[in-house]
Protein 1
Amino acid sequence: MRPKKLSERLAVMADFVKTGESVADVGADHGYLPLFLVREGVSPFAILTDIKPGPLEKTRHSARKSGVDMETKIEFRLGDGLSAIKKAEVDVVVIAGMGGETICSILAADPEKTISFRKYILQPRTKIEVLKEWLFETGWQILRETTAEERGRFCDIIVCEPRGKL
């Protein structure tokens, strides 16, 4: 876990989480963002998920190093997309570092569950136009769009909420 600072990309995403909002990080990789949010008292609880055991173990390692209470504040779950999270279990879902088409398929896999979460922070690595078109066609409201730099690359970030039925 990074001591006190996040990369610019993760810091921008962290700024979109309001104090008191619980978070799920789908495809958590290293888990820096949700661990930071819990450690800093922004989020009371976070779920870190991944589809493969190896990356999920990497998040556990980051959590151990971070000093975050792993008994009551953090849960690690193996699962594909939103499948590892219960309906309306958290306030904010973060899906970052995947292609836009992959993010669309995660959101479309279980529409009833998808609309049960209040807010999403999406950060596609590729195909942002595919993701934005899908969000528009399925009636999502985009609350904010911005970019952040990470390792010399500009990353698009979309904050949005589902509306109606997908």
Protein 2
Amino acid sequence: MSTPDQVLIWPIVIYGGLVVLLVAFIVAGSWLLGERHSSPGRDVPYESGIQPTGSARVRYGVRYYLVAIFFLLFDIEAAIIFAWAIAFYELGWQGYAAAGLFIITLLLGLVYVWKLGGLDWSRRGDGGDAQ
């Protein structure tokens, strides 16, 4: 007999086993019942109804990756500030000061990148264009 403080593990184990059996059954059934054929056009990637042209090995400039990194940084910043805004009253003045320090640090980083020319798209010949 178990006490209320003990967690019964056997229902979780049985459930996990049933899930594994169900997944195995579905995969095996689709493999047995599925069609097996190939044609020359089957391995060609579909690009909105247009036949693919050129190589998939296009080289992008460094600026493309800089924009991607900037997007990630500011997207994560927005998520953190949103979470802070939700918990604003619980965090109090200490949370307000921490969020202010966080925002000031990000603004200093933005000014630094701006001064280095990381946001300047007018320059050409430095890898900014896709080739």
